[in-house]
Design a protein that fits this description.
The structure is a homotetramer. In chain A, strand 4 and strand 5 form a beta hairpin. By secondary structure, chain A is mainly β. In chain A, 8% of the residues lie in helices and 47% in strands.
Amino acid sequence: MKIKLADEYLQVDQIGWETFEPDFQTGGIRWKLLHVSPEIGSWTVMFHCPTGSTFAPHIHHGPAEGYIFKGEIEIRGGEQVGGATARENGYLYEAAGAIHDRTTMTRETEFMLQMVGPVGWKMADGTQRPQGWAEAQQLWNEQKSELRPV
Amino acid sequence: MKIKLADEYLQVDQIGWETFEPDFQTGGIRWKLLHVSPEIGSWTVMFHCPTGSTFAPHIHHGPAEGYIFKGEIEIRGGEQVGGATARENGYLYEAAGAIHDRTTMTRETEFMLQMVGPVGWKMADGTQRPQGWAEAQQLWNEQKSELRPV
Amino acid sequence: MKIKLADEYLQVDQIGWETFEPDFQTGGIRWKLLHVSPEIGSWTVMFHCPTGSTFAPHIHHGPAEGYIFKGEIEIRGGEQVGGATARENGYLYEAAGAIHDRTTMTRETEFMLQMVGPVGWKMADGTQRPQGWAEAQQLWNEQKSELRPV
Amino acid sequence: MKIKLADEYLQVDQIGWETFEPDFQTGGIRWKLLHVSPEIGSWTVMFHCPTGSTFAPHIHHGPAEGYIFKGEIEIRGGEQVGGATARENGYLYEAAGAIHDRTTMTRETEFMLQMVGPVGWKMADGTQRPQGWAEAQQLWNEQKSELRPV
């Protein structure tokens, strides 16, 4: 017999920032892992991105939903080159299969993102390195060790 | 052949508040509908809740994830009676099947919630009135008519 | 820290049939509960339906996918009245929000169905009685008690 | 405004088998693509596997559910080496993150599998080649061209 899962409440502003995987970003992006859902494979993250920081090229294998608390994100190069520019107080939905080859934070940015399934980070040799709930949790736990709030 | 869905970007602070369904709340709770996912049946909402406002008793038939921008929510009566109190800058995860019989916003509160599947609002006669992505979209479209940002 | 869920293997032909909730069917429909996913709220069922049996009017609040091992199902009255008729060796996908007011098995039928979220069974007074993974599991456990294979 | 998705009914036994991607199998495994869900990223497949055929090592990034119509599958080497053996008339649930390094069909096997998110096929050089709903649909459409039943 299976039981209802536990509810979770996190005081996000009391959780410290950690450096996000250096292979997946430039410019000092930090993160907090807020939640993982092992059954469906979703995970929820908060990012802090300095001005000019970037995410490595990646594909969202499942849908992603997010909210931008402050700052500005140029997605697929930004709206001036046919991509999108997501701004402070903005909601964003990235459909499963979204290809994000150029993601630049043009201002100091904080945003939250819930992702279903893995992100496939594109390596220089053309291969993909998948990061899903399990890889995210492993990285986070290594970074926070005994300090992680539950 | 099916195609990748479109991405969505909303400037949330440029969307006006509407009154949330009066049968489902007291105290003047307003909402913005940010997103619906018709395939899996999820929907994402922003709520503005005056001090002392309440949601009617309800059950979350699927998981819900949210973020509290400001204010305070006493869930299942709040932590002083064995429930939970979610506060400003807090993340919350409600598991599928969560029963919320007493939900009170003890301060002016704004929070975002992504819900999978319907909420079952409990009526006084013990029956449930389901509200899912379709009912939410219908209410929103009636309220916004031609003005809704896409 | 959360862990990967366990895999599950069931020898379905060694699980006995139980009578499906009498309020939700006529004609002696029996079922086996194969799986519940408490996190996303999905559940997977096998049905055995005698010729002429029917399901009570219902709405699928999330998507449903199934396979018909044998028999014939007239959905929404069947194809002769604008509905669909699903037959032996057929796959079916019911979209979230599908309304099934007339479902008749015109031959002895066995089919499997995976449903995300609850089914809302429509009662004679117009209200809905939700049945999701938790209600299904509770019914099944009461029926199988100590005998249920895991 | 978004609309409810269409329901789908396929007469599976009238759909021809195609050869499954040769990089991902040995022994002549054939497939039919029954359904793709672009929003959540799930896809549903029927496989026909000759005796002794194998799937290449892979990881399921999301959950998978299936039914074995006939035959026998040794998963993770089979039960005699600590894996699992799934047999005719069997239901299987593979949790998100399941690693399947040795999958052999020891008898002529037919099974159906619904997968959420991509399978990461492990190449000889240690990299993963993801196959999700979009890659599956592309392969299928190329194979079936104008002949695909809808």
